[in-house]
Specification:
Largest sheet: 6 strands, antiparallel
Distance between the termini: 44 Å
Shape: globular
Helix content: under 10%
Number of helices: 1
């Protein structure tokens, strides 16, 4: 895959099997160069074919292609010019597309009058969030959250979706929802306490229940979407596992790894917090780390 097209290769021989159009980038050139990446979801490869959101000029639609030949099996209705498709998932014969999402905006501004060149990278939300479902066998549109009356402003949601067992899981600005994948029927909903954690940014499973990462904290909901906890962590920039330690990076900006907390995902408790610790080195267990404070090196 490249930004301007897709190529399928035989893994055994390296032989090119087929090529097709694909466009994930929008570029403008003038006094500054601007490139937007991520306007179309990456292709979704499945046993019955490959699903492609093709934003190439003149195409702008979701397609299903034959894995062996690249032949088009179906093509859904044309999309609008300002549509963003950020994610594709497949569940129980249903293709679910999440519209709206974060895109990467890169800008290059040439230096002038003695000023240096400037290169900037930002992430911006574009489009309107909705879920649209298609029959995976035919491409026929089956349901759309835009036709529903949901409890919050789902159109501004920025969180990923999950699927499994014929169900689709998604977050709005205040609530988490479970939809039936085949019909779009709303099965369950529950608040994740946006007042404590901010708008949902990431959703993932944890021991059979759900974790919601917000702008300013982390919440946990059980399988029935009952809230178990909602912990404010301060600005929640990124989370990661270091051994058995769940680390939440806080601070001012994502590339400033200078402040973190250790978080207990089972209880929602903050186990410890440290500031002024730039890019610590954790051991394989996550229970210890090295802090560099020139000229001192300290083990915690």
């Amino acid at each position: 895959m490249v930004y301007e097209g897709l190529t399928c290769l035989d893994l055994a021989t390296g032989k090119v099997l087929w090529n097709t159009t694909f466009d994930n980038v929008e570029t403008s050139v003038g006094l500054k160069v601007k490139q937007e990446i991520g306007r179309a979801a990456l292709p979704l490869i499945a046993a019955d074919g490959v699903y492609v959101c093709d934003f190439t000029k003149g195409e702008r639609s979701i397609k299903k292609l034959d894995l062996s030949t690249g032949a088009m099996l179906w093509q859904a209705d044309k999309l609008k010019k300002d549509d963003i498709v950020s994610e594709l998932v497949l569940d129980a014969g249903n293709l679910i597309a999440r519209f709206g999402g974060l895109i990467r905006v890169e800008q290059y501004i040439p230096g002038m009058n003695g000023n240096p060149d400037v290169y900037k990278v930002e992430y911006a939300f574009e489009g309107t969030t909705s879920l649209r479902a298609y029959d995976a066998a035919t491409g026929k549109a089956t349901w759309h959250t835009g036709d529903m009356e949901l409890a919050d402003n789902f159109k501004k949601g920025e969180c990923n979706i999950l699927s499994g067992g014929g169900q689709v899981y998604a977050c709005g600005e205040k609530n988490m929802y479970i939809f039936e994948a085949s019909t779009g029927k709303l099965l369950k909903q529950g608040e994740y306490n946006a007042k404590a954690i901010g708008k949902a940014k990431a959703l993932y499973p944890y021991d059979g229940i759900f974790m919601v990462e917000g702008e300013e904290g982390i919440a946990q909901l059980d399988a029935d979407l009952n809230l178990k906890y909602a912990t404010n962590t301060g600005l929640c920039l990124m989370t990661e596992m270091r051994g058995d330690a769940f680390i939440v990076w806080t601070g001012k900006k994502p590339d400033d790894r200078n402040e973190f907390i250790r978080f207990d995902p089972a209880s929602g408790a903050i186990m410890g917090k440290l500031e002024g610790c730039y890019r610590p080195r954790f051991d394989t267990t996550g229970d210890r780390f090295v802090r560099f404070d020139n000229p001192k090196v300290m083990m915690y």
